[in-house]
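[stage:ingest] chain + small molecule (S-adenosylmethionine)
[stage:ingest] validated
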Amino acid sequence: MPKEKLFGPFKRKLNISNIQLIEEFYSDYDFVEFYNKALKEDSHKDLEIFRKLLSLDDTILEIGSGSGRVFNDLCNENYDIYGIEPSKEMNKYIVREYRHKIFNIRMQDIEILRDKQLFFSKIIIPATTISLFSHNDFEYFIEKVSLMVKPNGSIIFDFINPSYLRTANGKIHMLEYRESKYYFSNYIQYPYFILNVYLQRDNLKKLSYSVKHLYSLEFLQKICSKYGYNLNIISENDIYIMVEMRKYE
Ligand SMILES: C[S@@+](CC[C@H](N)C(=O)[O-])C[C@H]1O[C@@H](n2cnc3c(N)ncnc32)[C@H](O)[C@@H]1O
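[stage:predict] done
[stage:export] tokens:
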């Protein structure tokens, strides 16, 4: 595990003899459990916002459908939604009946979907997933996916308010779940912020990290101007900013 991705007390855990170092945060059962629990406790009501913005006539694509927190609910409510998700561990949580609508690919490989002749009126990227993508990958994605976005269609996503990250930098939080204690913190290392998580359950000790990219309205405005979208802010609070990139007709 690269030491420069760990900070302060998390870096010191490397000295523990029986610690398990997990490189693929989203492929590890315990960290997926942590992630699901942390999202549930989060006060950001993104699913309610999506319900207001989406219609049953939309053809929707979710980028990084994960454990189906959004995907499963919207499928059950008869929305026509597809997903892309590279982690097979995450796919296990998708309701079996809808699993065929998840493509096991990364957003960087979005061109693969062009052969399927699918066109979307809405693309959603919930849960600040955009921060997993570098600015270059995001720009490449917008360029390629635009051919699959219907005129007047839109791409809707949230990202962490950069001013919040500056105040939360290095603060340690603890979450207790199913006999496990998870200690976690975000550290800014421009142009990234890096999540460190340490799990302790009886004799089990695990350490992982997830590198995330900082996004800002200024950067998104540049992408919109370049690829023919209008940028609208849908909601904004101290922690999250949700935006819509609407394609010109
Ligand atoms: C923050 S989770 C969001 C899951 C779900 N959308 C939700 O709202 O609960 C991010 C998801 O993106 C997936 N992911 C990671 N890298 C990806 C990539 N390159 N392309 C598409 N999805 C990716 C992860 O496996 C994970 O399931």
